[in-house]
Design goal:
Order of helices and strands: HHHHHHHHH
Number of domains: 2
Number of strands: 0
Oligomer: single chain
Strand content: under 5%
Radius of gyration: 21 Å
CATH class of the largest domain: Mainly Alpha
CATH topology of the largest domain: Ferritin
Amino acid sequence: MDNHKYKSTASELGIIWSQYLNDSLSRCILRYFLHHVDDENIRDVLNYALQLAEAHLGKLIQFFNQEGLPIPIGFTDEDVKVDAPRLFTDTYMIVYIQVMTIHGMTRYAGAVSSSHREDYIKYLIECTNETMELYSRATKVMLAKGIVTKPPVLNNQHKIDFVKKQNFLTGWFGNRRPINAVEISGTYLNLQKTMAKMVMELGFAQVAQSKEVREYMVRARKVCQKHFDILSTMLKEDNLHVPKILETEVTDSTVSPFSDKLMLFHISTLLSSAIGYYGEALSVSQRRDLAAGYARMIGEMGMLAEDGANLLIDNGWMEQPPAATDHNGLTNK
């Protein structure tokens, strides 16, 4: 098939448009991190991540040019001051990379299933493999330095069995069964991602120029702290550990390295992504109380993410994706 003669679908345009914004944002953050990082092993991982982001941007520009579409503005050198004082420690930088690769692997895998053009599919598979390699490198460094907190280990004897009673689903009344391995997996992943957001929100609230953006960061951190506590309780009730909170990895700098636009977009999109991760964990939670907890957090996160989007719109910072033709509007015009 000649891909140049095959017009991209709306799904494919949405994929490359979203990736351009995300990779242009990553480029800004990684350039700033590399200006300050001290640890050589972490520097190597950051360098690899920056190489990937810049290579992706170059390929995405080719795709837009093939379609005769304007290249999104995304985020540019105007959105970052690489020589601003250090806001995060080396430890948080590598944690940030690992958590962002989790987002990347999820998005790329989903994007492949929404693509039909051979060149898009090939490109997205390459992105998936590269992101898995980045995750592997980041995790290896974190393990070597004792930064990573592994999920709980189950030390009891296990045997093959089948559920025989309805109280397996019990959550509010009666004797609740212990949380199982499938439920632990979803809970722990969401704890890690929530912790990473809390640290970022703390730092961004400290340096944001706009009062509205500062207040939004403070509010977002409070909601994430509440959700961290809810998720932690799911594990602590069965004497299982939770990830370390890394809020001490934020420095005392009050000079912003990033534009308010970049910081607000980053946090609001991460909050939106959390809705999907909560939904996935809910779908495999077989205890009613756990499912109800996720349902409640999804609602709270949805309202918070919407308020972030409204704030982006109010400031003229939300770039509009390619959209379907407004035939009614054209008719009225």
